[in-house]
Structure formats: structure tokens, C-alpha cells
């Protein structure tokens, strides 16, 4: 977490809950593994709505399940 | 499923950009060497060659001397000729060489700067590494080589005619100051591209970390 934001990505737990690998998600969502890795490891500074839509469709979840807000400090 | 982003064929592919960058680097280094040789020649010689223009009367005199067939006539307003001037001081020799030296130096600077830009294009990061600044150098080179160099040539012509005492009404030559407009327009166009690259660099920085 950096760059003046407190957004956390829950992709790790979502994948674990579904027994899915990052590569499988990349195939299903049509998003590159590199980009998903950046997102999973909280190195993303911005997310396209199209990427978020694809990830949610592939995981069967809502945007709020993928992203969370860390407490201040 | 989100459709993958469509791609277009690159205008200048990595291999082509690399080859052009190498060629430009060679041209740049070659031009710099030529400029140095020209300076050395200007210092070591005791004469200078300048470009001046034949007056209308001189042109008509040449026309009469050519004995051309009936009806054929030498045309042209301000016909340019190269005038060899012996025994000139160092300052005038350097001024006479300034036009060519400026031209080759501008070619060297412009080619090397453009080569750097093409190298950035080759590695897929066209906006990185100060490409905008390098394109501004290219624009400045166009101005120096396309505008200042011809002006230096004209100034050398004036000085040489003055040195020879050929500035009177009945002199066969005259010198004239010309300001080329095409290089000015080209420099503005290159500056526009430099500005586009500057904004591109800002956009590229903006999308770092975008997924």
C-alpha cells in the first residue's frame, strides 16, 4: 500500500476460496497474469472498470469483494 | 469476458527504429568530424571561399561573353557564385567557414539527438529518457542549420566584398541577407512533436500501475 491510498486487494483470498490460480483467472478474465499479479500484490495505482468487471465476472463476486479500504494510520 | 485491447501495426517497428538510430549516430559523428575539419581548414588556410551574387549587369556581361546562339539568354535574378578570396585575416576565414561549420554541427547535434529518441522507441519507451528535450534539440538544430547557417553565409559574403573593396555601385557582385522560412516552419513542427512527447511522458507516468 502506497502512493497516498489505503486500498487493499482481496484477490488472494478470493482465489484461495475458489481453489483457482492466478493463471486460471487470467485465462477466464482475459486479463494478463502480469496485471493480475500487480493487482494481487497491492502494487496497482489504478484499476480499469473493464478489468474489475472481468475479474468480478470470472470470480462471481462484486467489486466490493475484490477491493477493501484499510483503516487510517 | 472483456475484449482484449486492439493493437495496430507500429509505424516504426523496433528493428527499423534501431537501424535508423544506428545510421543517425554514424551521420552525427561523421558530421561532427567534418565540422572540425572545416574549422581546421579555415585556420590553416590563408584564403576563403564565400558565396556572393552576380549583379544584373554582371549577369548580362557574362551572357554577352558566352556567345550563346540567337534567342538563348542567361536568365536569373541574383545568380549565386562562389568567390575565392586570397589573403584574408583569420576572422574573415572563420566567418567564411561558419556557414558550413554551423550546418554540419547542427546535423551532428540533430542526428545524435534523434538517434537517442529512436533508441527509446526501439525499447518500447518512447516517452522516457527525456525524448521531449531531445526533440527540442532537433528543433534547435533545424533552426541553426536552416536559418543561422545561411545568414552566416550571407554575412561572410558581405565581409568578403568589403575586404575586396567591391561594395560600390559598379561592383559586379552583391551580397544579400536571406532568411529561409521553410526551416522555421519545420522547427515549429518539430517543437509541436516535442510538446506531444512531453505530454505523452506525463500520460505514461499517469498509467504506471494501471491494470
Automatic annotation (TrEMBL), chain A:
Residue ranges occupied by any HTH cro/C1-type domain in the UniProt entry: 11-66
InterPro entries linked to this entry: Cro/C1-type_HTH (IPR001387), Lambda_DNA-bd_dom_sf (IPR010982)
SMART domains, alphabetized: HTH_XRE
PROSITE patterns associated with the record: HTH_CROC1 (PS50943)
GO molecular function: DNA binding
Pfam families, alphabetized: HTH_26 (PF13443)
Highest taxon in the source lineage: Bacteria
Name of protein: Putative transcriptional regulator
Species whose genome carries this gene: Blastococcus haudaquaticus
TrEMBL record, chain B:
Keyword Transmembrane attached: yes
Keyword vocabulary terms for this entry: Membrane, Transmembrane, Transmembrane helix
Domain of life: Bacteria
Residues spanning the membrane: 21-43, 94-115, 135-153, 173-194
Protein's name in the database: DUF2975 domain-containing protein
Species of the source: Blastococcus haudaquaticus
UniProt lineage: Bacteria, Bacillati, Actinomycetota, Actinomycetes, Geodermatophilales
Amino acid at each position: 500500500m502506497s502512493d497516498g491510498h489505503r486500498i487493499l486487494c482481496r484477490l488472494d483470498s478470493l482465489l484461495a476460496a475458489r481453489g483457482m490460480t492466478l493463471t486460471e483467472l487470467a485465462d477466464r478474465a482475459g486479463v494478463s497474469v502480469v496485471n493480475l499479479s500487480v493487482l494481487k500484490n497491492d502494487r496497482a495505482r489504478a484499476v480499469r472498470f473493464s478489468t474489475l468487471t472481468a475479474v468480478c465476472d470470472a470470480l462471481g463476486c462484486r467489486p466490493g469483494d475484490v477491493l477493501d479500504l484499510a483503516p487510517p494510520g | 469476458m472483456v475484449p482484449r485491447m486492439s493493437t495496430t501495426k507500429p509505424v516504426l517497428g523496433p528493428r527499423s527504429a534501431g537501424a535508423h538510430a544506428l545510421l543517425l549516430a554514424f551521420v552525427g559523428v561523421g558530421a561532427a568530424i567534418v565540422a572540425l575539419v572545416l574549422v581546421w581548414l579555415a585556420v590553416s588556410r590563408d584564403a576563403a571561399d564565400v558565396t556572393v551574387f552576380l549583379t544584373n549587369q554582371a549577369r548580362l556581361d557574362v551572357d554577352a561573353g558566352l556567345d550563346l546562339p540567337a534567342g538563348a539568354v542567361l536568365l536569373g535574378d541574383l545568380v549565386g557564385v562562389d568567390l575565392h578570396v586570397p589573403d584574408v585575416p583569420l576572422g574573415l576565414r572563420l566567418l567564411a567557414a561558419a556557414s558550413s561549420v554551423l550546418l554540419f554541427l547542427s546535423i551532428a547535434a540533430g542526428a545524435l539527438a534523434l538517434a537517442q529518441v529512436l533508441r527509446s522507441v526501439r525499447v518500447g519507451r518512447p516517452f522516457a529518457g527525456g525524448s521531449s528535450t531531445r526533440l527540442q534539440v532537433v528543433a534547435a538544430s533545424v533552426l541553426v542549420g536552416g536559418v543561422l547557417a545561411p545568414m552566416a553565409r550571407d554575412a561572410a559574403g558581405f565581409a568578403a566584398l568589403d575586404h575586396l573593396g567591391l561594395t560600390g555601385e559598379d561592383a559586379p557582385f552583391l551580397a544579400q541577407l536571406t532568411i529561409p522560412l521553410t526551416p522555421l516552419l519545420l522547427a515549429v513542427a518539430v517543437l509541436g512533436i516535442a510538446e506531444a512527447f512531453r505530454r505523452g511522458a506525463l500520460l505514461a507516468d499517469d498509467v504506471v500501475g494501471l491494470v
